[in-house]
Amino acid sequence: MHQPREQDSGFDASARSIFKSGLKMNHLHLILAIEEHGQISAAADALGISQPAASRLLGEVEAILKAPLCARVARGVELTQFGRAMARRARSIFLELRETAREITELKYGSGGSVSLGSVTGPAIHLAVPAMRQVTAAYPGIEINIQIENSNVLMRELLAARHDFVIGRVPDDLDPRLFNMVQIGEEAVDLIVRRDHPLLEEARVTPEMLLRYDWVFQPPGTLLRRAVEESFVVAGVPLPKTVINTSSTILTLSIVKETNAIAAVARDVAALVADNGTPLGEIRRLPIRHRIRIRPYSLITAAGRALPPSATLLYDLILKQAYP
After folding, report:
1. How far apart are CA 254 and CA 259, in angstroms?
2. What percent of the chain has pLDDT over 70?
3. Residue 252 and residue 245: Cα distance in Å, rounded?
């Protein structure tokens, strides 16, 4: 259903008069943190301040704007229509400031620009890395910042204007209308174990056999985690009982190498480390009977936000890698 456009009631006055009234950047940071976390205490933790300090900042900004920005709900707080409008404007302000800093840096140092990219692991290896190599060879002054994370984290970073674009998937709890998406590939999933793992003696591993061992999972709610869990449900077997949760690929590989734990990783990651002659090459891929399916990934930008030239260059090269 189409949602009515939120009104900007209370925000008709010019930005200059609002800031003259005492509005500060930390007020804007707080509103965005509350929007993301849904609790004042969690927002305070994210900003590194105490809850009383966060409550005081919220009271200040509501007094300045003469409008309630938050409303209490069962699990914490949510932004009112005034708060949502404020959050939308805050994101725009921080985006403009970041773009201003980028432009000034390029003018001062004559560099080729900068790009901020977020990506899930698999396509970062076989799409982003070759594209970045082409960009840096052609434009030696360019600066590329890349964050490797799960899609849940990356999409929120994109909304917060910390990335120009993302290679990943839109989580179910985010409105897809906030993004522009171009599907560019599928990410196969492998199960990995240490070199001498007992399951490697089996000709083909069944889901029931997997339950004998501990698991290393991505955090709950992530798309890869859910794909693995759904594979157990489809096979009619319970989920693993002993689980270590981490979003770190390096920690996952280290745990697998030193224990009998099993982990699910992107096939590109498994292919990069398995039997490669290094200590991490002691990791092996399990032959499993069932296929673990994960949703295709896309090149994703924030709706209504244009890419700067340097980011457009990298975006187009990644798209070319996907569709040569």
Report:
1. 9
2. 88
3. 9
Please tell me the predicted confidence (pLDDT) of residue 187: 83
Number of other CB atoms surrounding residue 276 within 10 Å: 12
C-alpha span between 44 and 122 (Å, rounded): 34
232, 280 contact by CB (below 8 A): no
> Which of 315, 17, 298 lies closest to 154 in space, CA to CA?
298
Q: What angle do CA 187, 188, 190 make, to 5 degrees?
A: 135
Q: How many residues are listed for the chain in this entry?
A: 324
Burial class (CB in 10 A: 0-12, 13-18, 19+), 36: middle
Quote the pTM value: 0.66
pLDDT at position 100 over 50:
yes
pLDDT value at residue 107? 52
pLDDT of the residue at 161: 86
- Compute the radius of gyration of the chain from its Cα atoms: 23
Is 204 exposed, middle or buried (CB count within 10 Å of its CB: 0-12, 13-18, 19+)? exposed
Tell which phi-psi region holds residue 54, choosing left (phi > 0), alpha (psi between -120 and 50) or beta. alpha
If you average pLDDT over residues 17-27, what whole number do you get? 79
